Amino acid sequence: MSLILAIESSCDETAAAVIRDRHILSNVIRSQQIHKMYGGVVPELASRAHLEAIVPVVHESLETAGCKLQDMDAFAFTQSPGLIGSLIVGAGFAKSLALSLEKPLIAVQHMKAHVLANLIRKEGSKNPDFPFLCLTVSGGHTQIVICHDPLNLEIIGQTLDDAAGEAFDKAAKMLGLPYPGGPLIDKHAALGKPVYEFPEPHIEGLNFSFSGLKTAILYFIRDHQKEDPEFISKNIDNICASVQQRIISILLKKLKRASKQTGIKDICIAGGVSANKGLRREFEKVGKELGWRTFIPPFEYCTDNAAMIAITAHYKFQAKQFATMEAVPSAKVH
């Protein structure tokens, strides 16, 4: 039995979680509101906000779990990928705890942690069997991964340019929606119908591309606004439904192909975009049609959080995969 404190600070959420074996005892997340006025995350402001939030967030996480720092068997942190200034804050804090308390240090790769969020043990939830497929969709990454076991993940498809989450956010910005725009597209899409047809990129294999779709949306809006300057305000719900429908169809088409090629029927989704209600609904619908066993983490484990760092650290602790004090954070996948 192990007790681990995990810290996540890769972007604009400061988070801490305590895990005992596969059970999450606390999962505290503090989001940074300052970025809304700039229409996106400002790296320098993000790292400063992490410095202000990390002590109270860790304190709250320990209190919620009913634990003390001295009780921990190890300390974990997000090593990569992410904003380098933000990563340094979390890494430095975890290192200081591990060094002062003479406990092991565990470095976690953020995208792998999103996948393993599907393995968190929670009352009433089910977990996939190995091997399973996972479609990981976030603002910075889109991947299809085979999880052979918790520490053996194989990427079999990924975006060649932009990520699905970025496509959502950039489309929202084109429509004049405030940051973060992805959830607002989901909200408007629920009120509209996909009456507009956007092109589907023809990318061979299991890889993705969303740059062409973003350009198509830009031209679509420009051309219709020439005819009617109020086109967006009059049709916002249907535009959002059409954009969302195309992004989802691109994602699920590749996922269906991956399942067919591998023969794997335990299928998961993960990452911030997996909180999208339209994607969750269509994913489960396709799963029923094709006889998949489908798995989606609870909403609190989809967006950036420390529970997913903690579950990954749990398996690395079991395997004694510890980091040294020389472990360096990296903006790119480590």
3D architecture notes:
With 334 residues, the chain is an alpha/beta fold. The chain folds into two domains: 130 residues, Nucleotidyltransferase, domain 5 (2-Layer Sandwich); 170 residues, ATPase, nucleotide binding domain (Nucleotidyltransferase, domain 5, 2-Layer Sandwich), CATH 3.30.420. 43% of the residues lie in helices and 19% in strands. Strand 9, helix 8 and strand 10 form a beta-alpha-beta unit. It starts with a strand and ends in a 16-residue tail after the last helix. The mean pLDDT is 95.
Cα-based radius of gyration, to the nearest Å: 20 Å
Instruction: Assign the CATH topology of the largest domain.
Output: Nucleotidyltransferase, domain 5
The level-1 CATH class of the largest domain: Alpha Beta
Taken together, the total number of domains comes to 2
How many angstroms separate the termini? 28 Å
Q: What shape does the CA trace take? A: globular
The ordered H/E elements are EEEHEHEHEEEHHHHEHEH
Query: Largest sheet, if any?
Result: 5 strands, mixed
Number of strands: 10
- Percent of residues in beta strands? 15-25%
CATH homologous superfamily label of the largest domain: ATPase, nucleotide binding domain
Share of helical residues: 40-55%
In DSSP terms, counting alpha (H) and pi (I) runs of 4 or more, how many helices? 9
What strand order characterises the main sheet? 3-2-1-4-5
CATH architecture of the largest domain: 2-Layer Sandwich
Mean pLDDT: 95
